[in-house]
Design brief:
heterodimer; A: about 15% strand; globular; B: alpha/beta; 7-stranded mixed sheet; 3-stranded antiparallel sheet; 15 helices; about 15% strand
């Protein structure tokens, strides 16, 4: 049964593959991998504590000491207490670094059940591993449900933030924002929306179409007009691609522009994000490292400028570079509020939520290619 | 003119030379500005070509050029208009029983209202017209008609030469001192003065890179990009949304202006304010390059009280994106409006320096120039 053992390598491969191919969104892939790992650890933990509570202890070492298992049913109370203490304590650095269990008799926190290498398991162990598997699968299903329904939970909070005759600005298109605004409309709030088109993907057009279909008064503007219009806007509501641990936001390109303009005019900048978008990483140089450059053909047609470029000149390097980044980083000081499915939060609070969803060991998803797994 | 005042709108419609249907879906905030359906204007005006006896063909030609968008940019529009007025003055003959001063002024006013119908005046044009009218009013009464006409044409030539062409040369000389080797210069849209600066600095042999930032719907930066590449400058092209991404590398920002107002606000192409704001956030100096004749004593705090609205179809339609363009037939939907602003107002705190033909001044010195040097107009 997997601890980090099976999931981590698979997960790491996924993340590496996603990052390599610049699949959007590679951050979310990493998040989900870490969530699943955390679920496994938690389930294991709760099973272990339940097992201790019922004195139904079986040695859950993941190494080759099968011999010791026969004597395990007769563990003394002292050993049980010691086991409980070590289970509930976070693993010591020594354990982590050496990557071996401290002793065969003590249940490991970071491992569960038997191994998958075909060694014989005792009946207790296999039933426990089956129960663990079952619990983990249930929890993962819950996670899937959470992700699918996060829009509704965020949209429920819409009436708390939108009042009558409000003017809202948004950029590009986000399903969360759409549901949010619909929910406010359902509750009979009347408001107007300015949608910035979000070039070069022009998702804003699609969002405007949806809003108009539901009867909302919408005005479509170009991204260059954001500064001109923001003085007449009450609130900016946008979606995010990922939320970093420091409260910064990775969002579609152009968002930093809107955030700066909103700060200048003291307009609240509200970011809607499901909790699965919270990433436990702190961003370093995010404009470059957490960004993706798309094809220049979205800005200029292929061959359009080939007639005025002299390839025979000097160094041979092309005179014309076309830059088309896909994402923007918005620093936490520009964000007024995060609205997630767990409620509204300050950007400075987001790092606390990490402890709820992620384990400290998984922050760097490593391949642990040791025999112990 | 206030377009939310129905009485005045009706009066101006009666005087109008050609028919302009008002846009059906008008943005409420901009009700005080004219919004027209752009589809049929040009064909309507062209069909009236032979009917307009009161219109001088040169002025008509300039009007059509404005309407079609062939002549854009403050300097180009101003020069085109003044040259048309020169032809008007040359062909002018005083009708019997009228004085030259009054009649010519009335004629010029009617031509100006025609040009306003084609496209609202830019501030540079407004200043040039005021100059023109003041010169006509100051004509000594002893002059004969031919002498008066020659004097007026001369004045126009001097205005164009001193205030625009020579001023540009002075600005270029000043600004080139601000370009150092290894610089990365950013510019937005297409300004003729900034283009001259970049080409001149390149000729001087300075090593620098240019970043051209562009935006919808006009993509004016592409024309500038073409001309820079042809001269061998190394350029980066990007969209205004990516300004935050590219601003890390930039050392200076050069922007053009349609006008600079007396509270230091720069009135220029929409998007300039965004670029200046991001540059300010990254502590990159912003230099506005603007001739002094474009300064105006008006003040403005935001981009809404006074602006120009373009064709809303330009926003609705995205060339080359059929998936997005399925929205196009929705321009008549009641709830959906498209807003195509042409100008915006950049606050003075984002501007480090304004380079004019009077030298390099901070934005706070603009009212000083407006007050002290306006007298110069009269002494020309």
């Amino acid at each position: 049964m997997a601890n980090g053992g099976v999931i981590a390598p698979v997960g790491m491969n996924l993340v590496a593959l996603a990052a390599q191919k610049h699949a959007v969104p590679f951050l979310a892939v990493g998040n989900i991998v870490r969530r699943v790992l955390h679920i496994i650890r938690e389930e294991d933990l709760s099973l272990t504590t339940a097992a201790i509570g019922g004195l139904n202890l079986s040695a859950v070492s993941d190494d080759e000491n099968d011999d010791d298992r026969d004597g395990d049913s007769t563990l003394s109370a002292a050993a049980v207490a010691a086991a409980a203490r070590s289970t509930l304590r976070p693993p010591s650095l020594q354990t982590l670094l050496e990557d071996t269990p401290v002793s065969a008799a003590v249940p490991q926190t970071s491992s569960s059940g038997g191994d998958s290498e075909g060694k014989s398991k005792s009946a207790d162990k296999s039933s426990r591993s089956r129960k663990l598997k079952h619990d983990v699968i249930e929890a993962v299903n819950e996670l899937i449900q959470d992700i699918v329904t996060c829009h509704e939970q965020i949209a429920e909070q819409a009436v708390e933030h939108i009042h009558q005759n409000e003017v809202i600005l948004t950029l590009g298109s986000s399903r969360t924002v759409l549901e949010f605004l619909f929910a406010a409309k359902e509750k009979k709030r009347s408001f107007r929306v300015f949608v910035a088109e979000g070039a070069p993907r022009y998702q804003g057009h699609l969002l405007a179409k949806e809003l108009v279909a539901r009867g909302l008064q919408t005005t479509l503007i170009t991204d260059s007009a954001v500064f001109a219009m923001i003085s007449r806007v009450n609130m900016v509501i946008v979606g995010a691609h990922a939320v970093m641990a420091n409260g910064g936001v990775i969002a579609p390109v152009g968002m930093n522009l809107v955030a700066l303009a909103a700060q200048k005019h003291a307009v609240p900048f509200v970011v809607l994000a499901g909790s699965h978008k919270l990433c436990p990483l702190y961003p370093h140089n995010p404009e470059v490292l957490l960004n993706e450059l798309r094809s220049p053909s979205e800005l200029l047609d292929f061959g359009e400028f080939s007639d005025c470029m002299d390839f025979g000149s000097g160094s041979g390097s092309p005179l014309l570079h076309v830059v088309n980044p896909a994402f923007d980083y918005v620093p936490p000081k520009l964000v007024s509020l995060f609205i997630t499915d767990t409620g509204g939060h300050n950007p400075s609070y987001m790092y606390r939520l990490i402890a709820d969803y992620y384990s400290a060991d998984d922050l760097v998803v490593q391949r642990r290619a040791t025999a112990g797994n | 003119m206030q377009f939310d005042d129905q009485g005045r709108v009706n009066k101006s419609k009666k005087r109008a030379v050609f028919n302009q249907p008002e846009a059906k879906n008008r943005v409420e905030l901009f009700r005080h500005l004219p919004q027209y359906e752009h589809g049929s204007q040009l064909t309507d005006l062209e069909s009236k070509f032979l009917e307009l006896d009161s219109m001088h063909p040169a002025v008509y030609k300039v009007g059509v050029q404005y309407l079609a968008g062939d002549v854009t940019g403050g300097n180009a529009r101003c020069i085109a208009m003044l040259r048309a007025f020169q032809e008007v003055i040359n062909d002018y003959s005083t009708p019997p029983g009228k004085t030259l001063v009054r009649d010519l002024t009335a004629k010029i006013s009617s031509y100006v209202s025609f040009l306003i119908e084609c496209r609202p005046l830019s501030m540079s044009m407004g200043n040039a017209i005021r100059f023109q009218k003041s010169r006509i009013a100051k004509l000594p009464l002893t002059l004969s008609e031919t002498e008066a006409k020659a004097a007026l044409c001369n004045d126009i030539d001097r205005f164009i030469n001193e205030k625009i062409i020579l001023a540009d040369k002075v600005i270029v000389r000043h600004a080139a001192t601000k370009v150092r080797d290894g610089d990365v210069l950013l510019t937005y849209g297409s300004s003729c003065v900034v283009e001259m600066i970049l080409l001149y600095a390149h000729e001087l042999g300075k090593q620098f890179r240019v970043v051209v930032v562009d935006s919808r719907p006009k993509h004016e930066g592409q024309a500038l990009l073409r001309r820079l590449l042809a001269k061998g400058l190394s350029c980066t092209y990007t969209h205004i949304n990516a300004v935050s991404y590219i601003m890390h590398e930039v050392t200076r920002v050069f922007l053009g202006a349609s006008s600079v107002l007396s509270n230091g606000t720069t009135y220029s192409r929409v998007g300039t304010a965004c670029v200046a704001m991001v540059a300010h956030a990254f502590r990159v100096p912003v230099l506005i390059c603007c001739e002094a004749y474009k300064f105006h004593e008006r003040v403005q705090l935001d981009s809404i009280c006074s602006n120009e609205l373009g064709d809303s179809n330009d926003i609705a339609r995205v060339p080359g994106r059929p998936d997005v363009n399925s929205m196009d037939n929705r321009t008549n939907e009641k709830n959906l409006q498209f807003l195509n602003l042409m100008y915006d107002a950049t606050p003075s705190e984002y501007v480090s320096m304004i380079i004019t033909d009077y030298g390099m001044i901070p934005p706070t010195s603009v009212p000083v120039i407006v007050r002290e040097y306006r007298r110069e107009y009269l002494l020309i």
